[in-house]
Amino acid sequence: MNSAPIGVFDSGIGGISVLSALLAALPRERFVYAGDSAHAPYGERGDPYVIARSQAVLEGMRRSHGIKAYVIACNTATAAAGRILREQHAGFPIVGIEPALKPGALATRTGRVGVLATHGTLSSEKFRLLRERLSGPVEFVPHACTGLAAAIEKEAYSGIEAPTDALLDEHVAALGALGKGPGQIDTVVLGCTHYPLIAARLQQRTGTSVQLIDPGEAVARHTKDLLTSQGLLASEEDSSLSLELLDSGDGQALSAAASRWLTGAAGLTKVQPFATA
């Protein structure tokens, strides 16, 4: 199993931000990335739909690619299906992602932390419990960025930034006062894996005094620790980094996103079809 690939899953292209961190942290591993764009976006869907799709993708990747671990690079899918998948696949390494509220709470100096995420993530029981555990002097200001993930998906293959920028203006403004002053938000948690892909443009709107928190590196560290503890890391003799991209849709957005945003993947445009049934 040490030479088997690690599966990385997202509803579309957003998990590319997590995949970049995984490639950097685990340079000897093989990866298979599956985007479920034919059934996206997940953020405005109900839990039963997201659970069903998350189950189908995991089962499909285990069946077709023999993956040794599964990274859910989607906040909405982790919130809705993470616990259920771990119960159904007991003993199989599954790593989820969640809004980085704790790092946000540690980073803030004003005591106010913005959280940009999808409606599905912010309305989940997992998010509610996470927020309650961190209740105290820090105030979290959540905002559902309706339409933003879908706009980033469209931008990936169209190259047209204006619709995404218009939504960025709207959603950043909805957070309220930003900065280092009393009562202002000085830290913003990126609670959807799509958002780090446009972090530079987001930072332009928040100002450089506001710190953006991206959980991708923490997910990569946790994945490496989990594989190490279970003796599943690829050996230097048996493996070298490789990557296969799969998509349940036409693959155009994922191909464009990999070429544009995936660190170290210049020229990587071939995306294979992926059927879960």
UniProtKB/TrEMBL annotation:
Pathway(s) per entry: Cell wall biogenesis; peptidoglycan biosynthesis
UniProt keyword annotations, A-Z: Cell shape, Cell wall biogenesis/degradation, Isomerase, Peptidoglycan synthesis
InterPro entries for the chain: Asp/Glu/hydantoin_racemase (IPR015942), Asp/Glu_race (IPR001920), Asp/Glu_racemase_AS_1 (IPR018187), Asp/Glu_racemase_AS_2 (IPR033134), Glu_race (IPR004391)
Residues that coordinate or bind substrate: D10, S11, Y42, G43, N75, T76, T193, H194
Catalytic activity as recorded in UniProt: L-glutamate = D-glutamate
List of catalytic residues: C74, C192
GO MF entry, a single one: glutamate racemase activity
Source domain of life: Bacteria
EC numbers for this chain: 5.1.1.3
Top-level EC class: isomerase
Family stated for the protein in its record: Belongs to the aspartate/glutamate racemases family.
PANTHER family according to UniProt: GLUTAMATE RACEMASE (PTHR21198:SF2)
Functional summary from the UniProt entry: Provides the (R)-glutamate required for cell wall biosynthesis.
Protein name: Glutamate racemase
Source species of the chain: Ottowia thiooxydans
